């Protein structure tokens, strides 16, 4: 354990804890653009700088480990004016047409500009922007909104391990692009959308992103129904309709989702979605209760078993069920039904 | 003024690539001494007070002790030969004239820290040096100075030559390591320092060419001898590169602490055509520009820091009265815009803004507040950029603001020379 003080408040933390983590523990807010707690600190945006007594330069809190006796100040004049300058530098070349931006309300640049009182940038606009890429079925990419925090690149390469996004060129010409300047639709992109989830601005946004503002939605934590992994996610709900999905940190998913979990939520409100079991009566499928439906199935199985023996029955399990559920299904087929005719869709 | 040649001892008097000829002038004696008791090397270097010659001046012995003390199955010695600082040519001269001294220094360093693999990261702009080094390395292998069981000591070490890809930022040690690993050359956050976790995460000693080339003589003559040259806090000799408006441009070796006046007048022979000296850029493109009135400043780190000059890697670029400092600053700002790696915000976005502001002054288009903004941005970059490139890029501008304030008089169109 190491002891230090942050803004005059003493705190004890485990060795290796960063200043940012210690601040989080104390409830001290530190602005960040590039920080992603799932990945090794990048230290590129320089927003999280703090003053450490004895150090000539400002220190980035996301990567600097706490040390014994350290005296940290998170909001000195030097720190605040430096952060303001970073915002101004980013704002100079940022497309500030926030009315039409899907990120309005959740944009970190917007939020920090407000917080640090930056209404306009004193710096010159000098960058030509690369063209938009709206070729993906699920999201849009607008480089004029990119602040080069590199979160998308790191998520794509280090978490999703898909290597679609990369940094191109150098210095002020640096931009996030695809190999051989391909469009998303022509690339190896798997549309997992994790880049969209981590983008702090409006550079990468969901196609449906303009249908709501972040303050209009409520978030509901749930488990993704698509497979047995059990990823945690937040449904964004506006007026009783699911309008988007954000990954949450769960035991099985470090804040990422796959293409299904991230984008395939439209079935929830689809008119064709089954919300009760159906039983065919008089040649037509009619709504039934679960008790009715399960009784019907049980009777059917028993009837076939009596007439033709248990091996006339086969069971197919689903990859959308968990391992435990699949195990129970197998058990039910063998013990209750009495057949070894049991298989699973994932074996195909 | 007579040179004091330690690193360049007998340079030019023998075939550079031949280890036999190098041995004939006392070469590889330091290695023999070092190999007899490798455990002592770090202490000897520490006692000598040798400090890094690449610009930062970090104590070499201390740096070595980090890597020596690190426990790992593999350690590396990397020679930083990415001499990219405009106005610096000293490493080139060492590699061209006495390549075996560098190789010997690397072997001593490897013995000291327990590394069995070395790399020379050579800038791509030195293709002729590449040929010399290749020959010298091959020759050293042939004569048993590299490879398995060096000189019967039971110690294995080899050096691989790696050619950079033209990025200035790769002279920064962590960006160099990333480049060496085949990645984009971008600086890493420190800690961990390369001495503990460097190339491929292994303890790595990264030293400048000149630093390594100093090791053999220290091993032969001892730390006391080394301390008899230079200053108390920065012992030894230093290779100084004189460039710009000076008659005898070139690389010269003198004890640290020689004054700029001595280098300018006695070695450099003054400005061409009897013109008057106006300004000197010290320490390369990222160093401070000082007025001719500071000519009596001794070239050592302490004295330079005191007056606001930059010791750096010992570069002196002289500018005479025909020189326009705004032209110089624009040129330098353009350089840093091109050479920023683009990783951290203040360097990537700040350098183009510095350039833009300097251009406004240069074209007589500056407005009230532009100078304040220039100073505010420049100062912020020095305390908040990720690596030395961004932190030092505003130095020329800020030093001109300090020493030549008249240059930035708003709309004082095209200030030239002493005006």
Give a structural overview:
- The complex is a heterodimer of chains A (348) and B (419).
- With 348 residues, chain A is an alpha+beta fold.
- Among the domains of chain A are: 2-75, Ubiquitin-like (UB roll); 212-273, N-terminal domain of TfIIb; 278-347, no CATH class.
- Chain A has eight helices and 16 strands.
- In chain A, the strands form six sheets. Chain A has a five-stranded mixed beta sheet, sandwiched between helices.
- In chain A, a hairpin with a 2-residue loop joins strand 13 (278-281) and strand 14 (284-287).
- The longest helix of chain A has 19 residues, at 290-308.
- The mean pLDDT of chain A is 95.
- Chain B is of the alpha/beta class.
- Chain B has three domains: 19-221, Rossmann fold (3-Layer(aba) Sandwich), CATH 3.40.50.11540; 237-320, Ubiquitin-like (UB roll) (Roll); 325-408, NADH-ubiquinone oxidoreductase 51kDa subunit, iron-sulphur binding domain (de novo design (two linked rop proteins)).
- Helices cover 42% and strands 12% of the residues of chain B.
- Chain B has 16 helices and nine strands.
- In chain B, the strands form two sheets. In chain B, strands 6-5-9-7-8 form a five-stranded mixed beta sheet.
- In chain B, helix 5 (90-97) crosses helix 6 (99-113).
- Chain B is globular, with a radius of gyration of 22 Å.
- The two termini of chain B are 33 Å apart.
- Classes of the chains: A alpha+beta (348), B alpha/beta (419).
- The interface between A and B is medium-sized, with 37 and 32 residues.
